[in-house]
Amino acid sequence: YQRRVRGSSGINAEYGDRSLHLIMMTRSLLLLLGILLLSDAYLYSFTAKVANRGRAGTSGDVYMTVIGTKGNLSVGKVSKKELKKGKTGRFSVYGKKNIGEIRCVRLSTTSKNSLLLDVVTVRPEYGVESYYYNTKGVILNGDPRRHSGVASLQMCKQGEEHYYITTRTSTESRSQTNKIHLRMRLTGALGTTTTGIINNEGRNDFKRGEDDTFVVPGMKMVGKIRCIELFAEGSDKWKFDYIEVHCDNYRAAYTFHNNRNIWISNDSREGEDVYKLC
Hints:
By secondary structure, the chain is mainly beta. It is built from one helix and 19 strands. It has one helix spanning 2-38; strands at residues 42-50, 62-68, 71-78, 88-95, 102-108, 117-124, 130-133, 139-140, 149-150, 152-156, 161-169, 182-188, 191-194, 211-219, 225-232, 238-247, 254-257, 263-264, 274-277. A hairpin with a 5-residue loop joins strand 6 (117-124) and strand 7. It is elongated.
């Protein structure tokens, strides 16, 4: 009886070793299969920055398509946790083919919840990050009864230039703001280009009497800057003394002074929501 017990234990031990070996081989084969399947896939990494005002975030379903020079990539449904108000969501997907240079990203929804994006970035594997700004502040909303949004929004690449924008807020009383939600259009000899919301994350910009510098990548190089145009989407008011703009190709700054002492605000009782300086 004792010999049979010991024999049984030996058989169980041998069976256990074989089972463990089989499990390890299966895992190795699955890992190898995954590597082979992904060897012809292309990784695309995204960020989606949601505006920090109103009901900018959404709890509805939002779908994304990436448009390239060699085809399109269907990203599918973007996770709701990546589209929170004032936050920058990050996610990645694999594509089965190289879609070439990425020209635009298109977002769509059938949800009644609104989404206000500021900028989406895309970085292909082994490539450089590109920027796609919501230059007109268009709201994504799939409710056909609403007139303040669209069910499909396409944001396209403008260029690869970095612009550096410095603002000097006036020392006048109540000239500061943290809710102006300002965009800027630059017009030069070679065309126009428009920023997203200019903002330094984690910093309180536009304080009275202080300078703020904003770095805006992914813009079109417009040559010698002739005019700037300010667009205020916040109801808070702001007064500036001057704005300086330069880019990597033109290091000398172009300066625009607020000689008319204009206040900027989305509220017509407090200032101008659109103001052009040349």
